[in-house]
Write a structure and sequence with these properties.
Layout (H helix, E strand, L loop, with lengths): L2 H11 L13 E4 L2 E5 L12 E5 L2 E4 L5 H11 L25 E5 L15 E5 L26 H10 L7 H8 L64 E7 L40 E5 L19 E4 L7 E2 L3 E2 L2
Parallel strand pairs: 7-10
Antiparallel strand pairs: 1-4, 2-3, 4-11, 5-6, 7-8, 8-9
């Protein structure tokens, strides 16, 4: 069975987890409507612009926190993907000695490195997981109000199933993150990243990945209500942690520019299918990718300017890192 197959099997098994009564406390009602999705000003995967309509839904005001996730684990006994040793048969070429629980941890290099080589700052941390975000000697004590990290797509879905909620589609997430503004602004507050020098989100200041000036006050994640909410009352839709969505990720196909005034209702507005989500740069590993949104504390002006509602990134569904989390929605 493939890695994707095993993950799907695990996801199906989540339906047997104990469930809680849906709780709308801490959620924000987002009235449905239409908006112009995407951007033509930054990265090709954000194109083309298209008009999309979404129905009304409730969304968590913040990413799911360590404290929230701890309640889920206590109630269900759930173990995250990072806490389970990988099967070397699923990963051709893997050193069997490395078949131990762990997750990807950002480690800042002490000097400039090529931005084309992510292995210069991402390291597989043995023993790293949601309760040990930097490795076995670390903990989340005092970080109960920080976003949970080191969660795969299946882990996020398991929490959502338990909470009787869902993960958002990419369109729902982007619509909510824009805060009701449909004027093409880059950020939820306008086109300037730091108006009058004011830090409005947790992202990287300085030359990534070796220089961080900490102008926002944080090296890694920050408490979820540290920075101002958008006009819908949602926090951290820019920076802090990337957030999982339901949609498969693929680069857009060359198509004629869509009339942005035309409105349509589509569940996956970019049209990706699971078979199109495999990473073309790694054809031997058929692991599907989902869309993540919002950027993280590692996004910088010189690298990954994806701390914007329109930005998107593909993430393999078996991968957990120290900068990926999620939030849920509820459809009534």
């Amino acid at each position: 069975m493939t890695v994707s197959g095993k993950l799907n099997q695990r996801i199906r098994g989540m339906q047997g987890l104990p469930k809680r009564t849906p709780d709308l406390n801490g959620m924000v009602r987002i009235e449905g409507g239409s908006f112009t999705m995407g951007s033509e000003d930054f990265y090709p995967e954000e194109q083309p612009l298209r008009r999309v309509r979404v129905d009304s839904f409730w969304m968590d005001a913040t990413p799911v926190t360590n404290g929230d996730f701890a309640k889920f684990v206590t109630a269900t006994g759930y173990r995250t993907f990072a806490e389970i040793p990988p099967d070397p048969e699923d990963y051709p070429g893997m050193d069997p000695q490395l078949a131990q629980p762990g997750s990807l941890v950002f480690v800042r290099p002490g000097h400039p490195v090529p931005l084309s080589d992510w292995s210069q700052w991402w390291h597989f941390g043995l023993g790293a997981d949601w309760t040990h975000p930097l490795g076995p000697e670390s903990s989340i004590d005092g970080m109960e109000d920080h976003p949970v990290t080191h969660v795969t797509y299946a882990d996020a879905l398991a929490y959502a199933e338990w909470a009787r909620k869902s993960l958002p589609t990419e369109a729902e997430w982007e619509y909510a993150a824009r805060g009701g503004h449909d004027d093409g602004r880059h950020y939820q507050w306008g086109d300037e990243l730091a108006p009058e020098g004011k830090m409005l989100a947790n992202y990287w200041q300085g030359a990534f990945p070796n220089e961080n000036t900490y102008e926002d006050g944080w090296e890694r994640t920050s408490p979820v209500r540290t920075f101002p909410a958008n006009d819908y009352g949602l926090y951290d839709t820019i920076g802090n942690v990337w957030e999982w969505t339901r949609d498969w990720f693929a680069m857009p196909k060359p198509i004629k520019k869509i009339n942005a005034s035309a409105c349509c209702t589509i569940d996956n507005p970019r049209g990706a299918a699971k078979r199109e989500s495999f990473d073309p740069c790694n054809p031997g590993m058929k692991i599907a990718r989902r869309v993540t949104k919002g950027g993280s504390h590692l996004c910088a002006e010189n690298y990954c300017r994806r701390y914007r509602p329109a930005a998107r990134q593909g993430q393999a569904i078996d991968t957990s890192t120290s900068h990926i989390g999620f939030r849920c929605i509820f459809r009534d």
